[in-house]
UniProtKB/TrEMBL annotation:
Biased composition (Basic and acidic residues): 1-40
Lineage top rank: taxon: Bacteria
Protein name: Uncharacterized protein
Annotated source species: Desulfobotulus alkaliphilus
Region of interest: Disordered: 1-41
């Protein structure tokens, strides 16, 4: 047996239960069954667009693009509501994105972002939820409602 081998001197009781040296936590890694596009966004057959739920899993190119879109909000704490709305809608183009990822990109508190901006954008029909049947779903994500945005801008 391996444990009887004198060269094998480490026993499980000597091992730490976790390691801070690991680059990723297991919950940050995609499940083996998860499919991702070339940008690192989660693909799921139940949704009409890919999902951004973890910025660390995105391609550098997409992450840079999102950070550029959010740069003004990330730098300034006080901005007109219209600018905040435009940035949110821009970040939510082409994919669903979670509130926490939006908050990280925009350097905002996730709860404040929901209360001050996301709720209103949803009510106006400018954003759609990934899981409208369960608004408090922990996986909730948002996408810009392009049809509605085009109609309201005319």
């Amino acid at each position: 047996m391996v444990q009887d081998n004198p060269e094998f001197h480490i026993h499980s009781k000597d091992l730490k239960p976790s390691s801070e040296d690991l680059e990723y936590r297991s919950e940050d890694l995609p499940a083996p069954s998860e499919k991702r596009d070339t940008h690192g966004r989660l693909l799921t057959p139940s949704l009409s667009a890919p999902v951004i739920h973890n910025l660390d899993l995105l391609s550098p190119a997409l992450l840079a693009k999102l950070k550029t879109k959010a740069s003004l909000t990330a730098k300034k704490k006080k901005l007109p509501k219209s600018i905040m709305r435009d940035v949110i809608l821009s970040l939510c183009e082409e994919h669903f994105i979670t509130r926490n990822c939006l908050a990280q990109l925009m350097n905002r508190d996730p709860d404040s972002l929901r209360q001050q901006h996301l709720k209103e954008l949803l009510e106006e029909g400018l954003l759609r939820q990934a899981f409208p049947q369960n608004p408090t779903d922990s996986r909730q994500a948002y996408i810009a409602n392009r049809d509605r945005i085009i109609k309201t801008s005319r």
